[in-house]
Amino acid sequence: MPAGKVAYQDKACPDGSKATVVQIAPLTPAPQAHVGFGPVMLPSVIGAPAQHYGSGTVQGRTTSGSARRRTEAGAITLATPAAARKRTFDERQSKLARGFPSTPTLRERDPARYLAETETYLERGEKLVRTFSDVQAVDLFRRDLVHTGTTVASWVRFTLRDPARAEGLYRRAISLQSGLPRPLADADTPRFWLADLLRFDLQRPEEALVEYRAMVANLNRRTTPRDSPDSAFERAAMQWFDAEIEYLDSRQRFSEPLDPTSFVVGQFVIEGLARGIGPGDPAVAELWVLLRNGAPGTTERRQAASRLEALSASNLRIPATFDFLPSLGSAEQVAAYLRRHDPSGFQSAVAFAVARAFALQTQRRQPAPGEGMSIATWTEQDRALMLRAEALVVTPAKRSARVDARLASPEVTWRGFLAALRAPDLAAP
To answer: CA within 20 to 30 Å of 248's CA: 14, 18, 376, 399, which one?
Structure first.
């Protein structure tokens, strides 16, 4: 290449990004410019007015700090426009995060100001996401915004008792979640919470029905292999949402057999969602403090009963409080509580099925000293009370679960298992 000639070449970096290599034929020694990990001799032309290559600028020193710069024989790697945009996004995201919230204890000291600052943060974050939609790292930030919006919305709903404002926050979280790739968008959490809010707080069941159907549609679009652990979670969620849709459509309570491979998994999914109530719902948090810090006595049980009766209606009150329901004192009161928070009956069926599944393991177990109230520590009187409550609220199945012909006998199952090993077939019994 003739002396002084400049050539450009795009190259892939080890981290997957792209960079432009500027190849300059050697000339006479000139002032040093610090590039990458050490000085490299540059031709005197570089010391002239600044030369711009994409987002990089060379004038004695490179000014782009986000891309990795390296030196080859007479070559300089400059930041590309993509790398510069990533750096700009990082800087703006960091600046936005530093201002939210303005003080660590703001939510407790000044809830109104905390909410205003949160809404401003989410609004600016949403604009940042739109501006830098071409930057790959924006998806992680968008997921964090979804989590923040959903968590704060539940706090607004259960602590500030402002369902209208909570609705706006849930809808913003849904909008931010739209288009996120899996696994970042695996959970429809904000949409579920919106459906729950529309149904119980705002008394708009038709709109809640729209959200439940949207969640079913999202599940139907997935192509998860049946042998994947995610498949059991999805089947549990599908049966749950279908039960809510059927109740809202026809007022028919859930009466089908629970999916035998997913009901326990379903309970854990539901309970995981319910755990999200705690930080934003002081009433549930107080119940946990009251009943989980040691075996409750008569006084604690009476206090718990009063607090349970005062809870606002929500589908996820069942998994969040099921362990404590014997505190209500009678099967009839437990049944009334379950019908209020779980009109379809699906949550109740799952909770009682889980209690039965663990009954043999726990009924002979002695609670550890200081262990709080849970299914595992129910007394014999508690278990008897809950069995009576189950009979009042759980509708017997209209039809038995389908029998898989491959499981007709131990011999048939064993032959199928051996055949699957030879195949191999991970979906076999």
So the answer is: 399
